[in-house]
Write a structure and sequence with these properties.
The chain contains 4 helices and no strands. By secondary structure, the chain is mainly alpha-helical. The protein has one domain. The chain is elongated, with a radius of gyration of 20 Å.
Length: 108
C-alpha cells in the first residue's frame, strides 16, 4: 500500500502480520480440515502448554516452601497479572487461530 493512502478495508493493515502468522501456524488454511480435526489440533497444542504451566507453578510453590521468599504485595500482584495475561495470550492465540485466519482471508 503506498504511503499516505488509506486502506480499502479495515483488515488490509493486517496483511503482512497475517502472512507471517500463516507461515508459523500449524494448521494451513489451504488444506481442508474438518472442524473436529482442527479442534483436535488446538487441544493437542493447548494440553502441553497447560501441563508445562501447571508443573512450573507446582515446582515454584514447592521451592518457596523450602526456601521462604518475602515478596512485596505489589510485586506479587504484578507477577500474577503478568502470568495470567501471558497465559490468556497463549491460549487465546492457539484456540481461535483458525477462525481468525478464515475471517481475515474473507471466508466469513
Amino acid at each position: 500500500m503506498p504511503l499516505g493512502k488509506a486502506p480499502d478495508s479495515p483488515h488490509q493493515n493486517f496483511g503482512g502480520a497475517l502472512r507471517n502468522f500463516r507461515i508459523l501456524s500449524a494448521v494451513n488454511t489451504n488444506m481442508k480440515h474438518s472442524p473436529a480435526r482442527v479442534g483436535l489440533y488446538q487441544a493437542v497444542g493447548l494440553a502441553p502448554y497447560i501441563a508445562v504451566f501447571a508443573t512450573v507453578v507446582s515446582q515454584i510453590q514447592a521451592w518457596t516452601r523450602v526456601y521462604p521468599v518475602a515478596i512485596h504485595l505489589a510485586i506479587g500482584i504484578s507477577l500474577f497479572l503478568l502470568v495470567f495475561v501471558t497465559s490468556a495470550l497463549v491460549c487465546g492465540s492457539l484456540a481461535p487461530a483458525r477462525p481468525a485466519m478464515l475471517f481475515f482471508d474473507g471466508q466469513k
